[in-house]
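Late entry, written up from scratch paper. The run itself happened at the end of the previous shift, but nothing got recorded in the book at the time, so transcribing now.
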Amino acid sequence: MAFNPEASSGSERRIGATLAEINIIPLVDVVLVLLLIFMLTAPMMYRGIDVNLPTASTKPTAVEERMVLTFTKDQAYYLNDRKVAVAALEPTLRDAFRDRKDRTLYLKADAGLSYGAVIETMDRVRRAGIERLGMVTEPTRTR
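Output as recorded:
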């Protein structure tokens, strides 16, 4: 309850009357703390598929809205975070690229995979009609 100097005179003050004022300082404190928490945790919300990428010394290309085929070490395929069966890889790629002008696919293969498995995947991508195939690598860390 806030102090009201006008109500301190004896005859003017009503008994049981309260002064209704909202104290917004605790509300502002809570909102600022919540804002800080959301600002710190928002970048950590995206979690992709874990793949151990090989390293390369070239700079990565910045391309918007790209199609990425991920090939994990347990031989599973993911097209933009959606799992694709091995037998359905070529038809799924044909359907995904049917209406696209940019016919570029980026292959993100685990470094622990055999060379033959990656080449076989690249062959399947070519048979699906993909014109350009890019390999996603992790840049070499320099000290």
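The CA atoms of residues 27 and 33 lie 10 Å apart.
(Scratch paper discarded after transcription.)
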